[in-house]
Amino acid sequence: MPLVAQRSWVYPADNSGRFRTARQYFGWFLVLFFVSVPWIRIAGLPAALIDIPGRRLVLVGTIFTPHDTWALALLLLTAALGLFLFTSVMGRVWCGWACPQTVWLEFVYRPVERLFEGPAHRKRRRDRGDHDATWWAIKIGKWSSFVVLTALTTGVFMSWFVGGPQLLRGEIGASGLFVGGMLFILFLLDAVWFREQLCHFACPYARFQGVLMDANSLIVAYDAHRGEPRAKGKSRDEESGDCIECNRCVDVCPSGIDIREGDQLQCIACAGCVDACNDVMVRIGKPQNLIRYTTKRDAPAQQGESRPVFTRRTGVYVAFFCIVAAGLVIGLATRNEVAVQIARITDGQQYR
Ligand code: SF4
Ligand code: SF4
User: Which of 36, 41, 243, 330 is the Cys-Cys partner for 227 at CB 3.0 to 4.6 Å?
Assistant: First the structure.
């Protein structure tokens, strides 16, 4: 038995539908947000800057120094509790809609890949055939574009740590250059090769989501009661369920899974399969939502029960979130704005 499993490449087909459109607009908004924030200045300071060498964090015109560790701790705690609360209610919606890895892969790299490779089925056929001159020409064109995109992506990431204007002026120092170079290699490897495997094997958030979610959390699920027994073509009869085994839901899945096999760790709740199946249902004149956003509690029967929005667990998260967030707000409102620090200025050092 081989020690290393063979990489199984995923070729998600193009897809359209209301969730896809909404994700696309939201994805573009997030890209714009990540790119623009390091360039925005509020009260003469960057809107956001994580200045590690300078040991300060700048957020919305406020500077946090090591003296404000309590504020940073409360901020991180608030963010963590917010994430727990969000996951408990919305499941893995973050992964499919807002995670930078998904946003960049789906809305930055994948469209460029489509330009060079064409639709997914053509790419799959080409990859499984001979690696001739055409194959190499297409790959070299695509990989060269990926190198440029990754350089820009690395620049966007670094600008959160050194500032947009500073990055443009090349003021990142030798250590910044080294970190940027390492990130560039990692980002490029992810875009060209690792891709959805990051969610499957490396992301810690994906690992502990199972603990945060319960039967009332939002998931994408297939209505087996309605869809089974599935049958296609001439094998269909009055007993057949609504699933016509077209496999469209599997073809479009960026994680390469079959949602009809039940809730799976690899599902990022992107709703690609929901759009795909709804399109099929419209074409065959059946009701939509054979696959849909639902909950584990509803999923087995999908009887359309209304799900409780606030369970005891979400109530506890909300309570802790409010307490910590209130502590943070009160602490910041009463914070002493004056801090005096005496330090020797060395040659070439300047205050950004
Ligand atoms: S897209 Fe819908 S009908 Fe087609 S295989 Fe998937 S669940 Fe069945
Ligand atoms: S199963 Fe559906 S919702 Fe889950 S990752 Fe695949 S396409 Fe997205």
Answer: 243
